[in-house]
Amino acid sequence: MTRPAQLEYRSPAAKTVSVGGDFNDWAGSAKGRFDPAAGRMTHKGEGRWVLSLAGVGPGRHEFKFIVDGDWEPGPNRTFFLDEKGGLTDPTGGIVMVMLEDAVTVRVQFSPLAALPQFLEKETFRLLPHGTVLGLTRREGLHGRGEEIDLHCRDLDPTANLRLEVRGLGDKPVVRPVHPDGLFRRGFQSDKPLGPRVEGNPPSLVFRVFAPRAWKVVLHHFADPLRERPLGTVEGKRDADGVWEMRLPGLPWGTYYGFTVEGPAGEGEGFQPGRLWPDPWGRAAVFHNGPSILVDPAAPGHGFQGWTDQGFHLPPKSDLVIYEASVRDLTTHPSAKVVPDRRGKYLGLAATVGTGAGIDHIKRLGANVVEFLPVFEFDDDPPSTYHWGYMPALFFCPEASLALHTLGGQVNEFKALVNTLHAEGLAVVLDVVYNHTGAPQVLMGFDKKYFYRHDGNFTLYNFSGCGNDFKSENPMARRLILDSLEYWVREYHVDGFRFDLAELLDMETLQAIEERLRQVKPDILLIAEPWSFRGTIKGRLRGTSWASWNDDFRTRVKEVALGKGTAADLLPVLRGSLELWTDHPLESVNYVESHDDYTLTDHLSRRADRDGSRHSETDVKRNLFCAAAVLLSPGIPMLAQGQEMLRSKRGNHNSYNAGDEVNTVDYGLREKNAAAFRFYADLIAFRRSEAGRILREAGSATCRTAERIDGSKPGAVGLYWKPTGSPEAGGDAPSPLLVLFNAESHAHATFHVKLPPGLWLRAIGDHRRFGPQDFSRREMLVTAADEDGVSFDLPALGVEVWMPGPRPRASL
Q: Is there a catalytic annotation at residue 89?
């Protein structure tokens, strides 16, 4: 009887190791119930862990190791089983065949493959044509095994090349040749792309990038349905893969698109008969196109020109972000927006003076609005509810959010930004460059150039959306950089939050920072620093980037639910300096976002997670979390409606759940008035002079805080003291004592040594907060209190104490 194959893992430090793969529903996570025990490995001693593959069917399988409960970073691992259950490698150990340049093909072998030493140039044959002149053996980088460079001639980079290798088995192995190396070294252009007016006399120039295309044709029309064609122009290709088409001129409002012909076969995406919108175009008829030729300088559709010259993004230390959807903010009748403008750019702009929308955000005290994606996205049919995380065109505002959808979206979005700036609110856009949605425009211009894939041209999917954008290729990176700069210059956007930023290569992230800071030195850049592949938390430290802090999000909510201790809470309350930041302002602190449950639903102990039916304890936990966000150093972020205890009735992924689930009901502000006031007063305190030390934490003024232990495991305090004396020039911030009791049912006591003087309580329970409440309790610390003073906090209580005014000296 054949012994079943087994997987092995070696780690002397690991306490538990499991395997999640396609053969066990990824340890249950594919069905929403992650269970590391589903693939638990057996420890055989000396750090050796094994798992039998008995019962796993033959063929190719993907998997990852789960070490101490954490998925290992990086791409999925792969193994093959033959019909007898034995491990095998049907490709002879070839990992990748890559076209490095116009005369070199590189063959990469697996580190586990025994590379035959008799390989000669005659062993290899290029299909459909190409001649191998010789070969050079080389050591693979980063432990990737051996590699062979084939020196060739007569290679056609636009052809669908394949490499036939003989001598690795009974039959020749044929592998596709990836053009990635050539992509990284060639096909780079700095010519302006998209539609432009150039020359004297002026002419209209269209340029698109399609490096391996054989033919690109511009088609233009008089109507959006393309029923009245005006003509075609065949493009001319330069050596860098840029196609150019010139016309004497076209009227603004003309509709246009491109047909693109190129190689067919494995891994290709060319569709010769299909009309594609312009990837560098400025507006489109929804996500499928065609593109619209718009005059960026023309007024109209609610916009008569910029009046925001005096607006500036507040200092990063003063920011309070409000994450919101343009659509959600005005679809409910309580937004007081006329029906045809609900869910629209102009509808939100019209909420000034209504008490909803913009007025509501200002009343709360936030000063940055972070919009869910507004790039033209895959909503099919148009206007179907969607968050926008399936982008189609990186330069185009989403048409379904406009009142006038055939070009009006450009000025309507400008009008919204102009209004927000006039009301003192900065604008940050959530942008998605890690993948694309339908109609997959870039695949029509060169799928192999713009998307990552494995050796068999299977698209990588660490985004979870079917494809991963290949940001490391020069012109893919340029597409990102050009679009970001365009949104800053054309739409006066103040910053960006990057969805699944881990999937953008580090060189691109660095280039984004460099390019945008040249355009707008105070640009706000925020990364969601993870993907299904891994995380880059900490790799952006020391830069101007901030990152969403999932450590903060998880720890605060878990401690509020009684599932953690003060030791878990302390690092995130001090700016995550002990975890992965160099400065607290590298951390965006939050407990709710568009993803997952609302905070109210997450904290609900109901089986259906319907937080709209909250208990008093649920509310106390919510406000405890709010205090943690707004009384910690870093950049605080709230999600739309969080301040009103908004519930989505247990829906944890409402990206397409419709307006009924996602809309913001401003009636909740009155229904949950105490909670709203608590959030608003916390923000006011944070932004006031009294809260200055929290904003300056991590700087020379105040590097960090002294830890104060409470009498219970869930109780912790922080004593923030300035580096210098408050009297030194009158410039040092006032100290603060911040106490948290996360115990759900028990009081906690703190014993703290404070300098003599009058101390005022700024917050003492969940209903009273703010400068107007300082008189509600005060305490005089004298020399007799040299051993410290005691504080007693109720369950889920938070207190903030600050020095009071010094008594006047007697004359």
A: no
